[in-house]
Automatic annotation (TrEMBL):
This is TCPR2 protein. GO terms for cellular component: cytoplasm. The lineage of its organism: Eukaryota, Metazoa, Chordata, Craniata, Vertebrata. GO terms for biological process: protein exit from endoplasmic reticulum. It holds the Pfam family WD40.
Length: 212
């Protein structure tokens, strides 16, 4: 018996004006007018996260049609990478041009979920622009990479409000992609791609020739 082909769904792609209109194009800082550039993007079924050049994270809830804003205290610097995760709690990791990394544990209206916004900081290890972030599926591990080749592992205990971070790998060129699954971290740099086995702390290169 021939299988029945699934129906084709046509979709129209258009600018998300409802999202873009909620983000200012300029801000006033003293006597200066500063143009706001959108610098990072990530999406899932619940949220659209947009990073900006003024250090503000714009988080749009797709179910409630609401925009919320989150920022770093202190220096107003460009956000270079954002990464969402939906597990028991909704989490978003944010990296900046100077190497700051923060995790926001979002508030949920669902029973038994987080009722207070909390922030965790990955302090003092990265010294340059964050170029990649990767979550473990349960939200207990976050890996961050920068443009100097450093990869940092952060262990999060959301119940205790603790974030412990350590340098686990250092490559000679910029990190361009991270992905984590089953105790293996995929790392792509400007020069090569490797598999980092987090339990054994061993490295296996994918392919033999360096990238040109």
């Amino acid at each position: 018996m021939a299988s029945v082909a699934s129906p084709v769904i046509f979709k129209e792609f258009c600018p998300l004006y409802y999202l873009l209109n909620a983000i200012p194009t300029k801000i006033q800082k003293g006597f200066r007018s500063i143009v706001v550039y959108l610098t990072a993007l990530d999406t899932n079924g619940d949220y659209i996260a947009v990073g900006s050049s003024i250090g503000m994270l714009y988080l749009y809830c797709r179910h409630l049609n609401q925009m919320k804003k989150y920022n770093f205290e202190g220096k107003c610097e460009s956000i270079t990478f954002v990464k969402l995760l939906s597990c028991f709690d909704d989490l978003v990791a944010v990296g900046t041009a100077s190497g700051r990394v923060a995790v926001f544990q979002l508030v949920s209206s669902l029973p038994g979920r987080n009722k207070q916004l909390r922030r965790f900081d990955v302090a003092g290890i990265h010294k340059s622009s964050i170029t990649a972030l990767a979550w473990s599926p349960n939200g207990m591990k976050l890996f961050s990479g920068d443009d100097k080749g450093k990869i940092v592992y952060s262990a999060l205990d959301l119940d205790q409000g603790i974030c412990n971070s350590s340098l686990v790998l250092e490559e000679p060129s910029s990190i361009v992609q991270l992905d984590y699954s089953q105790k293996v971290l995929l790392v792509s740099t400007l020069q090569r791609t490797i598999l980092f086995y987090t339990e054994e702390k061993s490295v296996k290169q994918v392919g033999t020739q360096p990238r040109k």
